[in-house]
Amino acid sequence: MQRVTRRRVLGLGAASLGAVAGCLDETPGTASEDGPNSTGGDENGDGDGNGNGKADGEFPPCPDYGDSVDRVVCYDGVDTETEPAVLEPSARTVEEGGTIEFTLANDADERLATNVYNWRVDKYVDGEWDRVAPRGYNAPLMYLESGEAHTWAVTPDNDGIADGGYVSSTGGTDELTLEGVGPGTYAFRARGWFEDRREAEQIAFATTFELEAEELTLTPTDAIADTELDDEGDGGTDTLVATSTRGDPDDEYQRLCEFELEVVNEPGDGTEPQRLLTEQLLRHSQLWDAVALAAERDVSTVRIEEYNGTHPAFGHDSDGLYGFQEQYYRVWTAELE
């Protein structure tokens, strides 16, 4: 890696690798060790919580990222000439298909422990921050030595997200494609700590940016091959049964499963729903298709039959109550064979 100064960042290299650990996974509407899915701003910046993604023409304060982060170094709220490490954006606005770079430069006299897989993107909606991506990441210990830097080049790209596959849920280390994101204000975050200090505080290095893109539309993906209305014949609610091409019936480790969604007016049992943005919903393919089919076909129950290899079916936290655009949905999953 090359030695740099923050204002003249040239020829940036990657962070030094340590031992590779595992990968974290998350369900829609939840966050990782950084804290809850919806996080408020911190003391850096001047947000007014008006929900328009900006505060008096400026960006809102960065997220606080939960209790496991001791301090947030927000680009707009610190002196970038004196702060020993800052995450600096190459621009403040990016168009869909364009690329924006985020550079974490270590100008301290000691090395910065970090993990360049562990980046995070949140979206600012109605005065709150919600985590969007990634849902999981590799977890090696890595370092930025004094004078070194690392750059993430992020390209928002929604082409092909409705083709029945999965919106990318894991992260990379440098060239990142950010799929399934609509227009609005976002925050990009890295993490680390200065290893040589007596009390190694966990630091979030963050900056905000604006994405100019087409509004996301929620329609069933191309993975829905067939639908049939199951008329119960007893005056009860009809169920739309959908067949999905996701999964492999010839794979001995996969079995036919069902993902059932019911539209509900109110939670009713005191359960707190997981509030989802469109960007979060698109990262759960079965939930995406079920919600879209319920709206498109005007039915209150959708059952998707699909081959799946996870245990339990579709992941450990798929069952539950979700809130999306002022509507509630209850989900059950089960194995059919």
Characterization of this structure:
With 337 residues, the protein is mostly beta strands. 5% of the residues lie in helices and 36% in strands. The protein has helices spanning 278-281, 285-297, and strands at 16-17, 38-39, 71-74, 85-89, 93-95, 100-106, 112-114, 120-125, 128-133, 142-144, 149-156, 175-178, 184-194, 203-212, 224-230, 239-244, 255-264, 274-275, 301-308, 320-324, 327-335. The strands form three sheets. Strands 1, 2, 3, 5, 7, 8, 9, 10, 13 and 14 form a ten-stranded mixed β-sheet that branches. A hairpin with a 2-residue loop joins strand 20 (320-324) and strand 21. The N and C termini lie far apart (53 Å). The model is unreliable at 1-33 and 35-56 (pLDDT under 50).
Keywords:
2 helices, ten-stranded mixed beta sheet, seven-stranded mixed beta sheet, 337 residues, single chain, 5% helix, mainly beta
